[in-house]
Amino acid sequence: MHDRGWWCLAALSGGMTVMAGAFAAHALQGQLPERLAAAFETGVRYQMWHTLALLGVLGWRAARPTRGQYLVLGLWTAGILLFSGSLYALALSGLGGLGMVTPFGGVLLIAGWLALAVCALRGLPEAQSESGMA
């Protein structure tokens, strides 16, 4: 996926986060047990923070394309889907078994932050990585 696709994905994630937050505040208010409402809100919060982080990496990438940035974007995107997505599904369905997926999403989110640290420390421009220089 080229940068334009990543920008669109981040924009859609941001919009979906606002919709999910509004849905939780209005349609779900008083409809879910406190534990499930809190799970839904946690999903919204983590999705928004990681959507903002996606935008930050995309901005960095626009100024300085660096080896590893796509890995960070991919890890965070998969993490959002598994972490926040499983919390949304858990809250809306009440099926406790869905909570088993959430930690895998959390691990992907953490891995994205670790990959970001490595990417920032190494700072290899893409041109070097493509020519075989490491």
UniProtKB/TrEMBL annotation:
Keywords: Membrane, Signal, Transmembrane, Transmembrane helix. Pfam families: DUF423 (PF04241). Coiled coil: none annotated. Residues 1-24 form the signal peptide. It is found in: Membrane. The keyword Signal applies. It comes from the Bacteria. It is a multi-pass membrane protein. InterPro entries: DUF423. The chain crosses the membrane at residues 46-63, 70-91, 103-124. PANTHER family: TRANSMEMBRANE PROTEIN 256. Belongs to the UPF0382 family. This is DUF423 domain-containing protein. It comes from Billgrantia sulfidoxydans.
